[in-house]
């Protein structure tokens, strides 16, 4: 089975949670079930922290936080009638300096 996340093989399909679980299992020499628990725990911890209004900072990678979008008057694209759009919380990711440098390096 080809590893869909290996860029060196020229295959580019995007990263999914399943691919991430496979990569963690392979690199940490764990079973897929153990790796799935780890990945799910990390992702749930991030979501729970954002729900609590906390900022998550992963040094060298980036930070996650919540931005508040205010309420506004929108319009129905079909009828053009005005529609109240309520305020909502939007997750925001800001890449760290090291991540930006690695993405823009010529390696």
By CATH, the topology of the largest domain is HU Protein, Chain A
How far is the N terminus from the C terminus?
27 Å
CATH superfamily membership of the largest domain? IHF-like DNA-binding proteins
N-to-C SSE string, H for helix and E for strand: HHEEEEEH
Gross geometry = elongated
Name the CATH class of the largest domain: Few Secondary Structures
Tally of structural domains: 2
CATH architecture descriptor of the largest domain: Irregular
Largest sheet: 3 strands, antiparallel
Number of alpha- plus pi-helical segments: 3
Q: Unreliable runs, pLDDT <50, ≥5 residues? A: 1-10
Described by its quaternary structure, the protein is single chain
Average residue pLDDT: 89
- Helix content percent band: 25-40%
Rounded radius of gyration (Å): 19 Å
Class inferred from helices and paired strands: alpha+beta
Arrangement of strands in the largest sheet: 1-2-5
Strand content: 25-35%
According to DSSP, the number of beta strands is 5
Please give a quick description of this structure.
The protein is an alpha+beta fold and 107 residues long. The chain has helices at 17-28, 32-51, 97-104, and strands at residues 56-58, 62-69, 72-75, 82-85, 88-95. The protein has a three-stranded antiparallel sheet. A two-stranded antiparallel ribbon has the order 3-4.
